[in-house]
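wait is this the right file?? whatever heres the structure
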């Protein structure tokens, strides 16, 4: 793989989760453009710098030896990548303090570098949290590949921080320079809330939660077909989002034991709040993680999953396939994975390569609900 070469360092970087023969690199031209700009401006070791949405740690690993760098992300995999890339390039794994996106920022910051995220609601929430956290004369610069940089990103920066000037494009990347101004404090529109009819529950959704304004149609198709009569089964909601699958299942299975896991810190925060709202003090394990990578083998009876079909801007079934493999490892013999997926994704044949038996539980014109038994 190519090295990231900038005035700060020459780095060997990896993505997370790792793949053999990885087809994609862990940085892009927007990272290079941003780092070259910072190098022109100059830094000192006393410069307090906040980096937002640094996908695999390319920015923080480059800058950590040159400033007091803090990284904030909503991705557990992003944290994992940063730690591995720091060590891979001769630095301590904890050289850069990490602030999960679900937690408040603690300024003041002299520099803020932003990789514009796919979900603009996340960007909006991050900009709102920057209010009052910028040092006098702070520099705020956002970056993205032109094809992934909507005009509304600059508009949000202008609304919450100050005027924005766009750079010329270099290697199909662009920078947005934002000049902070004194503004009236604006409250956040997040979290959002909506109510389900069946089961009758209210759901809280923080800014980066998938389908935060209403139930996605895949989950809507899945809910009526969740397994019943589970007794004291050990159940995981893999990629739990706001926790709706586990909560609906738990309401129907009062003796079952639940683990909810997602790689988004804001999803986990939403799931924790929703679980408490619907189920009070009933015990559950709710955590951020790399799917079921940390789960003991043969420790689950049932896994529920509405798998993602993209990682940031990259579309594909790599993450879903990995989740299926994790589920198979974590399930006991005879245990079952239940999933919902778009018909055209062909999950039936993929699951048949891993599991003893795969059956279709239900179908709609767009989705299939499948049960795969180990």
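ok assuming it is, sequence goes like this
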């Amino acid at each position: 793989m190519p090295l990231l070469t900038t005035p700060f360092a020459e780095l060997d970087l990896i993505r997370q989760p790792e793949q053999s023969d990885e087809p994609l690199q862990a940085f892009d031209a927007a990272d290079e453009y941003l780092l070259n700009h910072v190098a022109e401006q100059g830094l000192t070791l006393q410069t307090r710098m906040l980096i937002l949405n640094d996908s695999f740690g390319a920015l923080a690993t480059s800058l950590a030896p040159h400033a007091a760098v803090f990284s904030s992300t909503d991705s557990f995999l992003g944290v994992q990548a940063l730690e591995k890339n720091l060590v891979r390039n001769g630095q301590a794994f904890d050289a850069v303090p990490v602030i999960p996106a679900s937690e408040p920022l603690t300024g003041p910051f002299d520099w803020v570098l932003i990789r514009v995220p796919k979900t603009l609601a996340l960007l909006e929430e991050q900009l709102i949290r920057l209010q009052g956290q910028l040092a006098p004369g702070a520099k705020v610069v956002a970056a993205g590949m032109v094809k992934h940089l909507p005009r509304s990103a600059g508009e949000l920066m202008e609304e919450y921080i100050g005027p924005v000037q766009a750079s010329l494009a270099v290697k199909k990347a662009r920078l947005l320079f934002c000049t902070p101004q004194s503004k009236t404090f604006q409250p956040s529109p997040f979290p959002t809330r909506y109510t389900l009819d069946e089961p009758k529950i209210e759901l809280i959704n923080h800014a980066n939660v998938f389908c935060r304004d209403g139930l996605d149609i895949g989950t809507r198709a899945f809910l009526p077909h969740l397994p019943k009569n589970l007794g004291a089964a050990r159940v995981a909601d893999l990629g739990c989002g706001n926790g709706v699958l586990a909560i609906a299942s738990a309401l129907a299975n009062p003796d079952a034991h639940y683990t909810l896991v997602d790689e988004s810190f804001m999803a986990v925060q939403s799931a924790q709040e929703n679980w408490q709202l619907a189920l009070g003090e009933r015990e559950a394990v709710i955590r951020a993680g790399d799917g079921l990578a940390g789960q003991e083998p043969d420790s689950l009876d049932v896994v529920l999953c509405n798998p993602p079909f993209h990682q940031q801007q990259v579309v594909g079934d790599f993450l879903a396939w990995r989740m299926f493999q994790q589920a198979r490892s974590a399930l006991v013999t005879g245990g079952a994975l239940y999933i919902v997926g778009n018909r055209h994704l062909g999950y039936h044949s993929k699951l048949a390569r891993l599991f003893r038996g795969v059956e279709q539980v239900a179908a709609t014109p767009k989705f299939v609900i499948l049960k795969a038994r180990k």
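Residues 4-178 form a domain with the Rossmann fold fold (CATH 3.40.50.150). so i think its the right one actually
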